[in-house]
Amino acid sequence: MTDLSLVALPGGLPDKRQVAASFSRAAASYDSVAELQRDVGSQLLQRLPASFLPSTWLDLGCGTGYFTRALAERYVDGQGLALDIAEGMLNHARPLGGAQHFIAGDAERLPLQDSTCELIFSSLAVQWCADFESVLSEAFRVLKPGGIFAFASLCVGTLYELRDSWRQVDGLVHVNRFREFARYEQLCAASGLRTVSLQNQAHVLHYPDVRSLTHELKALGAHNLNPGRPGGLTGRARILGLIEAYEQFRQAQGLPATYQVVYAVLEKPL
């Protein structure tokens, strides 16, 4: 089992270039293990108003393009844009279609003109953005009046079983840090966008063993992206300690992995 650490920027945040590289490497394996991602994105789609028919939409943090294609099927008369910071993901998504344009870009500095989109859809991407205030500001700028920014993200409590198990082993940072749900509430309220809905919902997956979970996180490109974790190979003794510690969480269905998902639908006032 390998620990893959990222370069730290001032303030203890992961280097965005390393985040992009991690997800680029995972492009080929991502869809094979993306059960949670498909479930969350589908629930986010269901939260959009049924009568809402945007003529121009953006899949922000499109990844392999799974929901780019779902948006294209839902809004057959709309023009679609797909944007991701990871070139590897775009290279995977582009041949599969769904959008008129696939763009390499950063959610904190969108390479789009003002008032160009009626919908910005983002499923499980913005949790990797250190400056979420800028994400909201850019969404406000790029949306047309009456447009919608719908996003799903992760908050504190995600993978707490893995975090607590590692804490018993060595006390180091092995699990990604996420914002408090209350912080999402504060930032959304101050964004200038009207909050249509904002909820926190737990999703629990189950695994036969710890290795199945850690393999999936690596295949998703979502292994630990925070600084402060040990570098290099993880020793056998620590792995055995992790396995023993995680067993205290075992349920009839297997070892649980809890994801605390934030669902938001925000509207730009007319």
TrEMBL record:
Transmembrane segments: none
Record-linked Gene3D superfamilies: Vaccinia Virus protein VP39
Domain Methyltransferase type residues, every copy: 58-151
Any Pfam family hit: Methyltransf_11
Reactions that this protein is recorded to catalyse: malonyl-[ACP] + S-adenosyl-L-methionine = malonyl-[ACP] methyl ester + S-adenosyl-L-homocysteine
Gene Ontology molecular function: carboxyl-O-methyltransferase activity; malonyl-CoA methyltransferase activity; S-adenosylmethionine-dependent methyltransferase activity
Function: Converts the free carboxyl group of a malonyl-thioester to its methyl ester by transfer of a methyl group from S-adenosyl-L-methionine (SAM). It allows to synthesize pimeloyl-ACP via the fatty acid synthetic pathway.
HAMAP family per UniProt: BioC (MF_00835)
Protein name in UniProt: Malonyl-[acyl-carrier protein] O-methyltransferase
